[in-house]
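User: Hi! I'm a student and our assignment asks us to look at how structure tokens line up with a sequence. Could you show me two examples?

Assistant: Happy to help. In each example below, the sequence comes first and the structure tokens follow. Example one:
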Amino acid sequence: MKEENILGKEKIGKLILKFGIPCIISLLVNSLYNMVDQIFIGWGVGYLGNGATNIVFPLVMIALAFSLMIGDGSSAYLSLRLGEQKKEEAAKGVGNGLLLSVIISCSLCVGTLLFLPQLLTLFGCTEALREYALSYGRIIAIGLPFMMIGTSLNSVIRADGSPKYSMVSMVSGAVLNTILDPILIFVFKMGVVGAAIATIFSQFITFVLNIAYVRKFKCINIKRESFKLKGIVVRKILTLGISSFITEMSFVCVATVQNNLFAKYGIDSKYGPDIPITVLGIVMKINQILTSIIIGVSAGTQPIFGYNYGARKFDRVKKTLKAVLGIGVVISTIAFILFQTIPDKLISIFGSGNELYMEFACIAFRTFLLLCICNGLQIPSGMFFQAIGKSSKSAILSLSRQVLFLIPAMFVFGKLFGVIGVLYAGPVADGLAFILATVFLIHEVRNLNKKAKKSETLVDDTSTDNKLRKNIVITISRQYGSGGRYIGRLIADILGIKLYDKEFVEKLSKETGLAEEYIEDNEEKRKIIDILNSGYYAGLNNSDDLFIKESELIKEVANKESCVIIGRCADFILKDRENVIRVFVYGSLEDRIKRAIDIYGMDKEKALKEIKRIDKLRSNHYKYYTEEEWGDSSNYDICINSDALGVDKSAELICKMVKEKEKIIK
């Protein structure tokens, strides 16, 4: 008997520490990277120097967005192809990702150097900040290839099973940056230029360490051919990584809007535009330190949530949820107390300023972060829903504060109340995101309580009377309502072989420890919104992970026995095998609606909607994992209109085809 996974039996607190601490450390390193520059610039140059780095910051975030898109996409591609036992394809994904990173980073470097003045204007740069921003931005632009390639490789190195190496390379860069900053700024009197040079030297160290790892991959062997760009691989990488890109670009949008509104309304206030731009940039970076801890803890609980939800251990799911929410609220409460009681001390870490500077800093902390306690619930909620496969809710919560609430609130309150109005947008966005997360959580906890009361009975129908002399597998893809599953059942009965559909879910459940309900909720479904549900620490989403496990089981059963497999891209997974017959079953819309009404008891309108919805999900799923079109006749050995012959005759026709196939296979 297989020993139970520690996720299902170890103490929740121990698991959170085990999985959460590496995430927290990595996130804190990233956050401190930017903060260290600003601390030394603040003391060595003054607050205008810090304002300049805040203006350049959106450019850095754009570079990071591309880096994570390529890195996370390549790492997910690596995991998927390794799951399919396709090591050469996996190597191509990493090679293509690395080359793509080189091309995009060099292009971004050149583009930034050519159009830096225009970009700074777009990001809200004022005349007082322009000279500093140009000096800092030009050097940062030169280092973009090192930063982007190093960051992209970090994700791939983690996916290769070397998270410690990845962390060491990141920490090495951060430590070097901390050492070089004071030397170049104070000893050599280089100001913002020194801070920028320290940054790119540090990024170069991370780059060198990660490039050195390319020859040490554990799971793949990178060859020269791996670096030949292939359109289908590049598209897949970008698709897998698009969620990370969208998430980072949302921060770019917020920073750009914020800077421009401060530049616009600051002119009419006693603070001017430069103080608000500088101060809020620092305020957000300080807050990022505390939210990094919450994000790290939340990311660490994702495997705990996923496994126990799947294993129907709903009490453990609720305990984990209670623990992570409790930790989040404690951390955000500490942050709230600090922001409200000692804002002057916090801003002083980044250098001194005049009386107006300190005044606005205190107002910014106390106003913009008034409801930061809400982050302790909102952030873990988004990751909780991602972990249990609720992609729509997770995506909405992930983008709600930044895009849906904060940016519109900045425009509205800025117009009404000027500079201070932009600050009001912070608590408004936090409060609305909190309400939304609370509503989603209450509903889901009630569902967990209902599911906990249900009992399940697994049926293992293994009785067959195989009439085939050779091992033959029939894969059936089908339009919803075409009768494809019933045809598959008839074929299995006629030939005396096993049918894998719901039965396949049972087998997967026993093999993985995941509940049948969980598998059914996450397999063979691909929604457009799912692109928002993989990320820097999430790794593969639920559908990707299940696809890998199902692929392994499909190959396993195909090796052992003759059988009929319904859906699940089995035709693609087994396409290179001689003993496979690939079938696609379709029917007229009118007949499929009638079948849905007769079998499922739907009314005509609901049947039509369900047919379109399920067919779209199946098509998206097939396209996503195979890069081919679902229902394209060239992907199948036979396409049958079930209405032309009826399901019984269709099954008999396929069985005759199986008998003929049996004669010609070796």
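Example two works the same way, sequence first and then tokens:
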Amino acid sequence: MSDIRLFALGGLGENGKNMYCLDVNNKLFVLDAGLKYPSMDLYGVDSIIPDFSYLERNKERVVGIFLSHGHEDHIGAVPKLLKSINAPVYGSNFTLELVKDALKESNMTISDYQLFTVDSKKVMTFDDVTVDFYEVTHSIPEALGMAFNTPYGTVVYAPDYSFDQNVSKQYRTNFKKLSTIASRDVVALMTESLGAENSGYTHSKNALDHILNQTFYSAKNRIIVSAFSTDLVRIQKVIDLALKYDRNIAIIGRKTQRTIDIAINNGYLKIPKDKLEILKFISEDNKNELKNTLVLVAGDRHEPFYMLQRMVKKQDRLIHITKDDTIILMTPPVPGTEKIAAQTVDLLYRFDTNVVKIDKKILQPAHASSEDIKLLINILDPKFILPIIGEDRHQIALKKVAKQLGYTDDQIIILENGQILDLENNTVLNMSQKLSSGDLLVDGILDDDLSDVVMRDREILAQDGAMLIICNLDARHKKIMTGVEIVSRGFVFMKENEDLIQGVKDKFLNIAKEELQEKYINWRQFKDRVKKDIGRYLYYKTKRNPIIIPVLIDTQLN
């Protein structure tokens, strides 16, 4: 066994699903447990989480789950993981409040789990390994970096950070604690790479403040702002402007309201209660026009776009957008939402409302740019650098940044999910071993992950539709009791394809006649024949493969 073993079960070569593991002297430390959102071709999938079957097999060695911050790409898989591995969870107060909210949402009892609050003043000891933390600047409060101090040197985990100096005190990097960690022998630095392609430092853009201020100043009626629910820094900017211009504030988005409630309760958002507007459903007597109100439309990923579309189409129950409204789009599309984002913008412009679309360059994510990464490397002076949290191009960009500081190819280690790095005596012992790793597809209404069969059926349904074939049979007397009923969904319009539908009925009756001649009816064989033979017939006629669903009802008449 090597001195230090590092590997990822998610987060490498992809955007999201972050889960990294440190194995020291038979102790497993799990660093974050996040999700990523699916692409549009994964029908009905709500989220994708890491395959942590390796951790399930080794759960007696897991000493804890260490959470860096409250974004879902770092904590979204925690409820699912805790159902399999009830290990202690360590995180900042704000992060754990979000975890508790997620546990409630999953109908899990919070008291059944071990949640421990940590900050830069706490040091956790696990035999010969100690863990301490330092606050970092990010778009969500109480984000942490971590240092795992082993007998063989220190491993620093640095996800999602920047060195932006133009932030309030509660978001600032703890340089004092970071310098303390830098005084140790840092063997490996695991640093995020999402912003490595960007030159310079990541910092707050004064242009955003100027645009927002000008828009609030000139708006005569209602202002509607779209935002991502966890981007609390920008949400606070908008709220502060609303208060400056004496506007009431209405918040739309169920999950957003819970996140904002948590932020208010922990002092990270400040909204006077008398300024909060409680919306009632639109009716003949209540139009919710609220001319002197800021309406904050926030959610994750596609949700703000979806809600805006409903508002402009007059389908929403709370807000109907009018031509007098001012719409501020503060939600640049993230991967997988480009299409719905473009549709939303087109719809708003077509409606001829006043749209203020803030440029993506002004709304850059709060991730470390090239100079931030260089600064962290120079502070910690690690022996090895591991680019994490990012797609392949981001990891390669970080490698180029590190090489500018004199690091060699041997010192910059780019891993794949599941690939194991063994370090011993400050050298790379082995990188050839690989664990099974992959994706678990999660449907929000199901506790289990989705199988390939279910996903294949959903893909067929989306492309070719389905056909139900319904018939009442008397199995005892071997008779068909009623006519065959055909239901088509997403396949063909039945009134315009009567010959095709009649052909399906004739095929079914021929199959039924043969099956009913048997001494005992084999229902599985009967249904399989219906699926196979009618499926072939439909493909021959239409070149499409709908899902065939036989519904055979045994009436058991005397």
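Here is something you could point out in your write-up. Residues 40-44, 450-455 have pLDDT under 50 and may be disordered.
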